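stage 2 :: seqdesign
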């Protein structure tokens, strides 16, 4: 089917709204990646923003810059004058307060009162630094913000107390763990045998109860919270594969057993041999220790009774994309990159089955392939996460799985686009709220091919297929170093 037309007709408003959200996501993730949380940073959570302040070792103890600490919160006017340093801080809509210190001295003034630092004030290149230990005190006196400071993880909650989440194990027909937050959260999620692991980089979350909880339950046996290096982590432990779903607009995460068995992931296809369809697929082998590997999972869309678009009366989308998928696989192999096909025969798979199969296969990259007889050239899509309350019926509740990978997905799309450009192929890069991309917990793109000229049959020609497949494979090869290998 035509992703582009479907998108333009039905989701124009969604697109407009969601574009803003997607941009915000990308920016957030770029910020996170540009400043990896390390012990050398203080993470400040304020009502307006979350930010990191570099922590520098000076005179044998950790220091932070006053301007770096206060500027994200209000207006800062800093005036170094010889060895003296005067700083005026004005909170939004509030009255200014001043700090005065002298290079190499521990005595100064803070908001009109004498103040002694636990180490000498440092003035370097016009920048003033105070010992990290007094940051909570300075926030309170100068920025008049209530603070809660967790020294071990260097997380500082300013203005508002940290957001406490609760854990509730519900046992209906199956056990489910409900993790409820006061505000929507967007952690990165990883799963491995019997674990679901959440990493909160931006959210000021801490547990309402104990850091470590044990459940007397045959499936979900415990949860452990930890804070380190400016991030919070929650690990949920189970006796079987677990998965996480979002509910309540992102304020609740539900951990439950992962659906089993997953549908097939075709291996090592023989391009010349037509694999039989509708053959029962053996269950995946039991998990065993494995080394990280780089696997591209190619998903020829549609299949079976779902023929996709009728490109011509005798040419169905499902067949075109399967042929293209096999060619992309060969082109990747030529470049030393392993690839599997989600279907290597004419079988029907639902979008849910596809998403579950992709996430079970744990690829380094997921590429969905479509074809259309409308539009022109190649459309390269990345996911646009839907706004929380829009078109719920069109999207899965686990619709934010892709969010942690949006920047990497965008990089892959850009790399493929560059290769199309190099081959003078007409192309468009687009973002759209696409399934199953939204549900894929890996870098993911969708490629829809349409004829480059008025001749519709061209779409199935060997030369066009080859040009597209080479562009995709070369684009992936060029960006491979940026994509993490994955432990299967
Ligand atoms: Zn399609």
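stage 2 :: out
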């Amino acid at each position: 089917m035509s992703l582009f037309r479907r998108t333009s007709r039905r989701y124009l408003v969604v697109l407009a709204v969601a574009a803003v959200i997607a941009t915000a996501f990308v920016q957030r993730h770029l910020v996170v990646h540009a400043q990896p949380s390390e012990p050398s940073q203080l993470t400040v959570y304020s009502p307006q923003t979350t930010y990191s302040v570099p922590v520098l070792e000076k005179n044998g103890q950790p220091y932070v810059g006053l301007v770096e600490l206060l500027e994200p919160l209000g207006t800062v006017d800093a005036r170094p004058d010889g060895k003296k340093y005067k700083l005026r801080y004005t909170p939004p809509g509030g009255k200014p307060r001043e700090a005065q210190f002298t290079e190499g001295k521990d005595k100064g003034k803070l908001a009109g009162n004498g103040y002694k630092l636990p180490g000498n004030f440092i003035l370097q290149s016009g920048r003033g630094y105070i010992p990290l230990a007094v940051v909570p005190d300075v926030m309170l006196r100068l920025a008049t913000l209530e603070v809660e400071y967790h020294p071990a993880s260097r997380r500082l909650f300013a203005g508002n107390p940290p957001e406490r989440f609760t854990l509730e194990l519900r046992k209906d027909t199956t056990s489910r763990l409900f993790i409820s937050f006061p505000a929507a959260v967007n952690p990165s999620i990883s799963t491995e045998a019997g674990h679901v692991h959440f990493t909160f980089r931006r959210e000021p979350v801490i547990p309402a109860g104990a850091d470590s909880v044990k459940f007397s339950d045959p499936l979900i046996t415990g949860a452990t919270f930890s804070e380190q290096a400016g991030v919070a982590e929650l690990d949920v432990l189970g006796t079987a594969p677990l998965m996480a779903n979002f509910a309540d607009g992102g304020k609740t995460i539900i951990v439950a057993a992962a659906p089993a068995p997953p549908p097939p992931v075709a291996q090592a296809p023989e391009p010349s041999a037509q694999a039989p369809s509708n053959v029962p697929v053996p269950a995946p082998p039991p998990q065993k220790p494995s080394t990280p590997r780089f696997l591209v999972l190619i998903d020829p869309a549609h299949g079976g009774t779902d023929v996709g678009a009728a490109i011509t009366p005798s040419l169905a989308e499902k067949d075109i994309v399967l042929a293209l998928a096999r060619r992309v696989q060969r082109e990747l192999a030529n470049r030393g990159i392993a690839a599997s096909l989600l279907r290597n025969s004419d079988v029907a798979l639902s979008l849910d089955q596809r998403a579950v199969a992709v996430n079970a296969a744990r690829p380094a990259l997921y590429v969905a392939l479509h074809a259309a007889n409308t539009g022109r050239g190649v459309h390269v899509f990345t996911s646009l996460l839907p706004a929380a309350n829009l078109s719920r019926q069109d999207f899965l509740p686990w619709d934010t799985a892709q969010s942690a990978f949006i920047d990497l997905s965008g990089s892959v799309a850009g790399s493929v686009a560059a290769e199309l450009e190099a081959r003078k192929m007409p192309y468009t890069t687009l973002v759209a709220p696409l399934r199953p991309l939204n549900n894929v917990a890996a870098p993911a793109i969708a490629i829809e091919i349409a004829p480059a000229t008025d001749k519709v049959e061209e779409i199935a020609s060997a030369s066009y297929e080859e040009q597209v497949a080479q562009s995709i494979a070369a684009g992936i090869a060029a960006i491979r170093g940026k994509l993490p290998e994955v432990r299967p």
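stage 3 :: structure notes
- Residues 4-38, 267-288, 387-397 have pLDDT under 50 and may be disordered.
- The two ends are 32 Å apart (CA to CA).
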